[in-house]
Amino acid sequence: MGQSLTKFLTDYCDPHTVATNVRSFVGRKRRRDEVEDQDNDSDLLLEKTLHTPKKKKLLSTAQYIYRALFKEGNNSDVTVIALGKPWRLHKVYLCQSPYFASMFSGAWREAKEDIVHIKVVDPKINLDSLYTVLGSLYLDEITLEPIEVVPTLATATLFQLEGIIDQCAEIMIETVNAETAVKYYEAACEYGVQKVKEVAFKWLLINLLSHFQDQSKRLREISVDLMQKLVSSSDLFVMQTEFSIYVLLRFWMFLHLHPEWESSSRESLLEAQQYFQNRKDEEPFLASREGKRFAGPFQALRFQHLVNHHLDIDMLKSDQIVPLDWLAPSVSQQWYHMLRVDQGLDRGPKSMENDEFCRDCVRCGRTLVDAGEHVWRWTGFNMGLDLIWSCSTRTLRVKRNHRTEHEVMLSLQSRRHIMCRVTLASLDEQRQVKHTQSTGLKSLTLYKNEEVTLLVLDKDLTYPLLLSVNLLFNTAIVPSQETGSTNVLPSPAPSPNVNEED
């Protein structure tokens, strides 16, 4: 018995044997569990597969309608012929347009006919725009390229489709740039899209002098009427002084007179100047038969600010473009202003209405190409004020410079008042305004050599930075009560505080 027990313990209770048996048992159990887990996973996957919805993109109802009814013309009940092309269409869809709804209702002849002729007189409407607009009546949305937007707008206006007109307007506003600004403005005027007209006009005010002088093709596109409106505006961003507007107008007029002219801006500006100076006719060009049609934009110039520098006057005379009798009232007016300042009768305006300021103010400006400290002055006789302007990355400042070596040409009044408005603008890749900052209309009182800060620059302003400045140095002149004209010596506007050292 003892030997049997010893043998049992030796055979079955040996540690090595026990470990081997345990591993074998555990291994068999793990394999059974893995097989069971795999079976369970397969069942779950099958269950999930059977209960998961399967998506397959089918032809939508709108797409089917567009293809079957518009493109293929199935079950058409009317044929519309426009620009020589027949369109097999359906009255129920066409009547979404008030144009067709009116045509197919009431006592109109077309209401009972199967073939309708559309007379298209607008040259901007083409077959592609007809395809887009007529096809839109069979769709719930359309996609437009900017290059197609003006013909599409023209066609949508013909068929009175306000939704497409609004979509065209959105695209036009987003894509106003050097290539499209004039075209969009003219289209907006023609088709009554006021918002587009305003945006395009504002773009031109900002970019006309800062960008279009190098764009002869685009500058030539500007009509006489549009140019007159731009030059008349007090919001025009002028680069340098009023005389730069005159130079641009001279170049613009030269381009209209020479439709085929293509050259660099520097050569073109010189050629334009020589063309007018070398004319044999002694009659000023704007008074001639050929030049009268361009008179409007030149008459919109502020001549009182064109006669503040002797070199500018010399150029005006040698060009023989502007009749000298246009300049005479401004010369008389400025001389009268100067005498009043010299006699201490006018220390400058302290307050006025915005409309009055906009009508009479000096327009000047410049482009600040990069960040840093910029210091400059605008030349010309500004009623005895020498203003030094400076701009850093943080502030815009103006100083009344009064150095003793220049006192002979400076106002000796210890205190001078001016009105001003400064506007800064940063542009994006399309030269649309992405950020702007303005002082609004400000009244400044400056002592000799005093410097004031006009603006603390917004951090969102980026370079290049366009700067537009409007200034007024004198109090207003009231037209003569007898003549109603400023061609004679005018009466000064009532200003009880103008001479007081307050």
From TrEMBL:
Keywords: Developmental protein. This is BTB domain-containing protein. InterPro entries: BTB/POZ_dom, Gcl-like, SKP1/BTB/POZ_sf. Coiled coil: none annotated. CDD domains: BACK_GCL, BTB_POZ_GCL. Residues 76-146 form the BTB domain. Residues 482-502 are annotated as: Disordered. PANTHER family: BTB DOMAIN-CONTAINING PROTEIN (PTHR23231:SF17), GERM CELL-LESS PROTEIN (PTHR23231). The keyword Cytoplasm does not apply. It comes from the Eukaryota. One of its GO terms (biological process) is germ cell development. The keyword Repressor does not apply. The lineage of its organism: Eukaryota, Metazoa, Ecdysozoa, Arthropoda, Hexapoda.
